[in-house]
Amino acid sequence: MEDWVTIRNMKKRNARLGTREIADILGISRNTVKKALKSESPPEYKRKEKINPDIEPFREYINEKLLKGNVIGSRILNDIISKGYKGSKSAFYRYIGKIEPPVKRTFHPYETAPGEQAQFDWSEYSIVVNGTTTKVYIFSYILGFSRYRVYEASLSETQGSVFEALENSFMKTGGTPPAYSNR
Hints:
alpha+beta; 3 domains; three-stranded antiparallel beta sheet; 7 helices
């Protein structure tokens, strides 16, 4: 790229300079100078396309799954691994990135009206308290509209602790979402 720019600038500044003189000044071949003067755009490096030999036996299967359009790459990767694929994940994703049609995947958040919906869930964590590993359960309550969150911690995941976490969440958020029916 640098040589291409330099050659073109030298010729532009002094039209009497020949290819041999430019080549001698820059220490490059005359053919390189000729090629640079003929081309209107700088040279581009393009790597030769070659298919990974590990992927080759699974090409048809991968292409077929991608054409259907409803299967994601990780699912296809798991399928071909179970069929004997020994290559790397990155080689697989590089391959499907070249052949997969660029589909715009959009994210549509679930929108709700105020007070319409909430979500409740819990996760288990192991923490060290006074040198002893203890299980702690974190209950989360998230309002659908505002995404306001309430977290409660408990040492058990019994029905009573779930009800207590729900009750405390309702108290902190000012009530419960209404129950809807199809009537």
